[in-house]
Design brief:
Elements: H1 3-7, H2 16-23, H3 34-54
Length: about 60
């Protein structure tokens, strides 16, 4: 699955299953572009505890 494309959809932020997947695939986060930074920051703010509990890899290199 292409997480970069998924990140460009605002609804992606609300998808907990994809959030779990993104937390377990931090190498995918390196492909983000400027438009996605806001989405990722929002993702972090809304789901940081859940994500950290999953894999403790909330360092998305923004």
């Amino acid at each position: 699955m292409d997480y970069c494309k998924a990140l460009r959809r605002r609804s992606f932020i609300r998808d907990v299953n994809k959030l779990k997947a993104i937390c377990s695939a931090r190498e995918e986060m390196s492909c983000t572009i400027t438009h996605d930074v806001v989405a990722i920051k929002t993702l972090q703010d809304q789901n940081s505890k859940r994500c950290m509990n999953e894999r403790n890899i909330m360092n998305f290199n923004i």
